[in-house]
Amino acid sequence: MIGSAGAGDRAAASGPAGGARRQRRVSMADVARRAGVSSQTVSRVSNGHPGVVDTTRRQVLAAMKELGYRPNSAARALKRGEFRTIGIITFSLSTTGNVRTLEAIATSAAQHGYATTLLPVAIPTQDEVRGAFTRLGELAVDAIIVIMEVHLLDAATVSLPPNVGVVVADSDAGDRYSVVDTDQAGGARDAVRHLLDLGHETVWHLAGPEESFAAQRRTDAWRATLQEAGRDVPAPLRGDWSAESGYRAGLRLAQEPHCTAIFAANDQMALGVLRALHESGRTVPDQVSVVGFDDIPDSGSFVPPLTTVHQDFAEVGRRCVEGALRQIGSDAEERGTTLVPTRLVIRRSTARPPAPAG
Amino acid sequence: MIGSAGAGDRAAASGPAGGARRQRRVSMADVARRAGVSSQTVSRVSNGHPGVVDTTRRQVLAAMKELGYRPNSAARALKRGEFRTIGIITFSLSTTGNVRTLEAIATSAAQHGYATTLLPVAIPTQDEVRGAFTRLGELAVDAIIVIMEVHLLDAATVSLPPNVGVVVADSDAGDRYSVVDTDQAGGARDAVRHLLDLGHETVWHLAGPEESFAAQRRTDAWRATLQEAGRDVPAPLRGDWSAESGYRAGLRLAQEPHCTAIFAANDQMALGVLRALHESGRTVPDQVSVVGFDDIPDSGSFVPPLTTVHQDFAEVGRRCVEGALRQIGSDAEERGTTLVPTRLVIRRSTARPPAPAG
DNA sequence: CCGCGCGATGTTTACGTAAACATCTCGCAT
DNA sequence: ATGCGAGATGTTTACGTAAACATCGCGCGG
After folding, report:
1. A56 CA from D9 C1′ (Å)
2. Gap from A197 CA to chain B (nearest CA, Å)
3. Are strands B178-182 and A336-340 parallel, antiparallel or unpaired?
């Protein structure tokens, strides 16, 4: 109702030309004229400032509605010197973790009255990243959240806009940036201990790609946990996070007669491992136990439902935003790493190892 | 190098205070002073306008570099009346399709020099959607792309900013908006025909949620294809896109003795169906064939690898951006629907039906 | 040899908002 | 009764950019 009335008014005002959509926007001055007040009063109403008597406020609000007034955020940003926007740099959104973190960031930012500008970096080369930062520098953002391996960010650092804070998710650059991350090590340790507690002699590992710090930390914790327990450390296999790479690795693991427990660095690769084991005739969990990492929504529907390490991506996103806003507020750079705890979700892909043959 | 030099200069200029990050930004006036020209000349250089002699241009560029100048996009947007930004309204990013479309949109927009502002709508109520549109109206966007079921958009329409074009993905509102969508009907028809061609008597259907037009269209096409072929149309089951709901439906389908072919409305539900069939002792594809929809990256690693309908989300995203830019350029609203074709990917979850028992 | 014209550059102004400052109008205390 | 102060509202100005308009200088033709 309201909206259409406004539209009607404006169409009428635009004269016989009609249909033109890009006529001048309704400004505070227009509202002020209509309401019979000054534009400053309109501004006060618009921003909820005190010191406007109730009758006046109502008049202004009425005028706003009639005209369909919307604040011009460009002018507002220019005047205030801030954009109320957070920029997000991210790699491809093909991994669940990135997506869920992104979603949480956007949601959390919105709750704080901030918009989010998305800057995907198609190819993870330093040139691409630097380009993204350059574009961000020209963009209207008050802070930047980076969801990516930070070593690709090094060369780009120099072109970082000097006035914006940076928060990095999923990285180890706590010495240079404010980092929010899942407690990869703790999660991996829980996964390995779970398998050892079940009675497995050792745990094989399907690692994520070399360039991922998250993958590296999971691998390190896997190795450390085995060593602490005095177990053999089998050579880890390496995948690229994809189910397909998990499948290939799984085929090889299926050939290892002593392999009774596998810790895959993410759920998608675990999915591939499950398929490979299934096709190789090795049953899960009776002959081989499998643990994943992430707890993606589908993992409860794998065959069998996957025991995995739950990551609280929402919390990661929330803390990223908090960190970004804190930096915006304080004008001071932050450093250091915040870890978000994980939780082991035990389903049906893990069990006690089979009784030793012979 | 360049960046750090600029930072050094500015730190020096800022005097002994040091460390303050939110000093005033370098403006065109600063650059102009440094280069010994007028700010208008700086503007011309900055925007690549002709009519600046080469030596002057070089001086200006040098001054920009020295000072670390970055255009203020707020002022630019205010002056130009456009933001070079596309707003994206989307539901939760839990479905692969939305995510991949989003990614394609952001990438494509960036290639056209446009930024993308993300506006997630947590709860798909009309109030939420309207709120999102209100926020977008205040946001700095030249066009809006909506990735959601459009009927939730109806009530919000009235508060649509009058100057921005709207493109909708995944909807049937071609009469009111410019819509880009996957050819749901064609894909569903291909899936069903594939199963019929294999010799199945009929095809059971696990539909998506009622409120999804995509789901509805897939269901309609499934029914129509069966009817065209003169087959029985079993009552469709309904899921909510999740693997878990697919599992529940799958358990019921496993009880149907005549059910030899299942068309699930998306891959995730198909995953759940596969698990349910497996646990019920019905082998895929020997006893039951299953087809999904989407071709998510993991579907090739399901057990067995899933035959599914591939959606070209990248193309959908690209066309959304093209449509949005066209509307920005022409100041005219567009309507009508653009369909992006699908492709049936045949893997190993489909086969000829088992020979009739007895 | 002078002026015309064009290309290069400078100056003015407006975009819409909101802070800072100015003014105005009451009510209340003296 | 009157003046003072607090609260309500109006006026001025600046944010950084870029269009529109103004000016300057130089080369070339008459």
Report:
1. 10
2. 27
3. unpaired
Ranges for all domains in chain A classified under CATH 3.40.50.2300 = 80-178+314-333, 184-312
- Give domain B80-181+313-340's CATH number out of 3.40.50.2300, 3.30.360.10, 3.30.70.2740, 3.30.450.20: 3.40.50.2300
The burial class, CB within 10 Å (0-12 / 13-18 / 19+), for A329 is exposed
Contacts of A342 (CB under 8 A, 6+ apart): A182, A183, A184, A186, A187, A190, A309, A310, A311, A312
Footprint of strand C on the protein (CB under 7 A): A 24-25, 27-29, 39-40, 43, 46-47, 49, 71-72, 75-76, 78-80; B 36-41, 44, 50-53, 55-56, 75, 78-79, 81
Kindly determine whether the C-beta of residue B207 is less than 7 Å away from any atom of nucleic acid strand D: no
Which residue spans of chain A are classified as CATH 1.10.260.40?
Answer: 2-71
Question: Which residues of chain B make contact with A303, given a CB cutoff of 8 A?
Answer: 274-275, 278-279, 303
Q: CATH 3.40.50.2300: does it fit domain A80-178+314-333? A: yes
**Helix ranges restricted to H, B47-156:** 54-67, 73-80, 96-111, 126-138
Q: What's at A238, amino acid-wise?
A: R
A130 within 8 A of A153, measured Cβ to Cβ:
no
Nearest-CA distance A282 → chain B (Å): 14
- Cβ neighbours of B7 in A, within 8 Å: 162
Q: Would you give per-residue pLDDT tens digits along chain B (358 residues)?
A: 333 333 333 333 333 333 334 456 789 999 999 999 999 999 999 988 888 888 999 999 999 989 888 888 889 999 988 888 898 988 778 778 888 899 999 989 988 888 899 888 766 566 666 666 666 666 778 888 988 765 666 554 445 565 677 787 776 676 778 889 899 999 999 999 999 999 999 999 999 998 888 899 999 999 999 999 999 999 999 999 999 999 999 999 999 999 999 999 999 999 999 999 999 999 999 999 999 999 998 899 898 999 999 999 999 999 999 999 998 877 677 888 899 999 999 999 999 999 865 4
Nearest CA in chain A to B158: A3
According to CATH, what is the number of the domain B184-312? 3.40.50.2300
Mutation choice for A interface testing from B64, B103, B119, B349 by most A CBs within 10 A = B103
Residue found by looking up tokens 């700010």 in the block: B39
Q: Which CATH superfamily is domain A2-71 in?
A: lambda repressor-like DNA-binding domains (1.10.260.40)
Q: What are phi and psi of B85, to 5 degrees?
A: -140, 140
- pLDDT for B242-296, tens place per residue? 999 999 999 999 999 999 999 999 999 999 999 999 999 999 999 999 999 999 9
